[in-house]
Each structure stands twice: as C-alpha cells, then as structure tokens.
Amino acid sequence: MKYSAIEIIRHLENYWETQSYVLTDGYGPKQKLHEDFKVVEFLPGGKHDFWIYSTAGMSIGRTDGRNIELHIFSNKQDRGLIRVLASAASFHKNIEPLGLNHTVYIGMPWQNNSKCDHAFISLPYLDGEALELFENPNGHLHNFWLIPITETERNFKVEHGWEKLEVLFEEQRLNYLDATKESLI
Fold first, then answer.
1. Is 178 inside any structural domain?
2. Whole-angstrom Cα distance, residue 149 to residue 109?
3. What is the DSSP string of the chain?
4. What distance lies between CA 72 and its chain's CA centroid?
5. Averaged pLDDT for residues 96-118
6. Distance separating alpha carbons of residues 21 and 134, to the nearest angstrom
7. Staple partner for 150: which of 51, 62, 126, 183, CB 3.0–4.6 Å?
8. First to last CA, the chain
9. Tally of CB atoms within 10 A around 159
10. Are strands 68-74 and 139-150 parallel, antiparallel or unpaired?
11. pTM attached to this predicted model
12. Chain segment 11-23, per-residue pLDDT in tens
C-alpha cells in the first residue's frame, strides 16, 4: 500500500478534531525507521481531554499487508512516548510485524516509575472504526491502540489469551491513563 505520513496525520487530525505537532527528536536510530516516519503529538481537546501520541508512517514500504499505525494516550504531555512508539515501529519494520492483540516489551517504564513496561495492541475501543480504518485508493491500514501493561498482565495474556485480558480490563475498569497503576492480576 502506498500512503504518506502526511495523509495519516490528516486522518488523525480530522478524527480527533485537535491540533497536532510532528515531533522530530527522540526516535532513536533513525536508519532503522523509514525516512518518512513521524511521531505526532495531539493536544487535549476535540474528542478527548488527554494527550495522544501516534505514529505516522510506521508501515510505509510494507508489502505484506500488515499496515498498521499505533497511538497511545497520556494524562500529561510526555515526549518520552516518542521513544515508546519509535521502538514499536522499529520492531515492526526490522524484527517482526506487529498486529492486533500482540504484546510488546517497551524496554522502559511507560512513564516515570510505572510498572507498565509492556504494551498490548488493541482495537481503538474509545474511537471505533472511523479512526481505526484509513483507506485511500491504494488500500487500507489499521490504526490500533497501544495500551501500557505490566509484565504480569502480559504473562496472563500469553497464558489465558487476549480475550480474557480484555475482559479483565473491563471488569477491573482499567484506567488507561494511570501510569502508577498496579497490575490487575
């Protein structure tokens, strides 16, 4: 599929109805990412009253149909999330394609001293298909939600399956903005 990071950013801006800024620092080794890869910061406002960070272009150049972008929510402005998203994008491009219901080790606490150092790739339940699906004449891609989780939650998912993890999130009323949350297990 052929698309540009700018097309993705426009799609996200239109959906979230808020201002965005392309962030240019903190990507890590840039040679491991596509030259058009971006991380975008969306200000609170529009559809959500929290910060949103999203990839734009993490699947540019893929020919296997595994075209995804990821976004993560934050209760505060946190440019450290650039590295989280760039790491996931690098893994997707260079090691193994990521997809819905996968988990990834993010290699550091999500924020501050958070116990969440893994993440779960989920449907964007707060936003639905209008955000998830980006289509242009050359095909489509999926925009998935990257939810920070603990290693214990990741192990639960591996042992019991992603469906049970999502049920646990719902039953325990996962606070996806709380970087100090304890494991729900």
1. no
2. 10
3. ----HHHHHHHHHHHHTS-EEEE-S--S-GGGS-TT-EEEEE-SBTTBSSEEEEEESTTTT--SS--EEEEEEESS--TTHHHHHHHHHHHHHHT----TT-EEE-SS-SSTT-SEEEEEEE--TTT-HHHHEEEETTEEEEEEEEEEEEHHHHHHHHHH-HHHHHHHHHHTT--TT-TTPPP--
4. 5
5. 92
6. 20
7. 183
8. 40
9. 9
10. parallel
11. 0.94
12. 999 999 999 999 8
Please give the structure tokens belonging to residue 50: 């929290």
Average pLDDT over residues 146-153: 96
Q: Do 99 and 132 form a contact (C-beta atoms < 8 A)?
A: no
Which residue range is the domain that position 21 belongs to?
A: 5-171
Residue 176 lies in a domain: no
Q: For residue range 22-39, list pLDDT tens digits in order.
A: 987 666 656 688 888 999
Predicted local confidence at residue 36, as pLDDT:
86
Number of domains in the chain: 1
The residue count of the chain comes to: 185
Q: Is residue 79 part of a domain?
A: yes
